[in-house]
């Protein structure tokens, strides 16, 4: 019956693999890097290739990190907060041009820095009330603000009224800034005591004046700027100032080491998950030869366009799956079992 071939539509079905990228969903994972680097080099590497050095914020993260690098000791993103200038400019915080003028036995335990009339620096509790020196980029001048404020309030004042709290980059600038401070107040107590004791003592006391400058330090912090609320330090710690943190994956605890040592490291990486589905597609075919790869591909392109246009899916990737008989489509005759479209393992990342 030659005529019937044209009038009867064949019902065929095939399995279509759909990979659907979710551009708005981001999942954070750890990536272990088996290269020996200093902490800062590792940070640069992670920032270039992934997101940043690893941030561990809870026990789950810690377990994930441990599993990412079995039997290893590696840098994570935690470091001991370092001294920084409020303006946080490259030239201010560059270690090779770093200027400092600590007084004897300073810096102590304070985290905010004040300068004395004599030009020496003192680390103080940031909540102490002091006058402060702002820098104005407009005039290029340092300005003494003779109001007593805490360091954070002083910083806010400078940032709203001028540019920022002053950075000091040289001895010359240090002298300029300290010269702004009022002379120490001398109280002559000689007369007072003299009158009191009926003697001829002469004594005086000097009250030094201080003003905040822009230098301060932060406590433990993560490379990506997260606060360090969760830590997992082990009991055995080295003495001294070792400012970068490693994880020991066998004990899943952390310890600190000098940042200049070379070690392997763990990065954060943000990946976009791909959803994969397998669909069964049934079509009626009149004349097109569905065994032809060109035809198969053209059907694929049409389906892809329809999914993107009508279902709002983005970056969909489609692929026909081969049936056990080596064909993509099987003809559905009343009795033949329809193909079973099994769920596939993965979409791949290509
Ligand atoms: C760490 O924990 C946070 C909060 O639960 C989570 O969003 C993040 O994906 C975890 N990071 C890793 C790398 O598992
Ligand atoms: C962290 O830095 C502070 C201030 O610089 C220092 O006193 C402390 O010893 C450092 N901690 C470690 C573990 O190095
Ligand atoms: C770290 O490795 C570099 C080479 O990659 C080497 O030049 C440097 O001396 C090493 N530093 C230490 C502290 O071992």
TrEMBL record:
Keywords: Signal. Pfam families: Lectin_C (PF00059). Residues 327-350 are annotated as: Disordered. Residues 1-21 form the signal peptide. Gene3D superfamilies: Mannose-Binding Protein A, subunit A (3.10.100.10). Residues 30-135, 134-268 form the C-type lectin domain. InterPro entries: C-type_lectin-like, C-type_lectin-like/link_sf, CTDL_fold. This is Uncharacterized LOC112136718. The lineage of its organism: Eukaryota, Metazoa, Chordata, Craniata, Vertebrata.
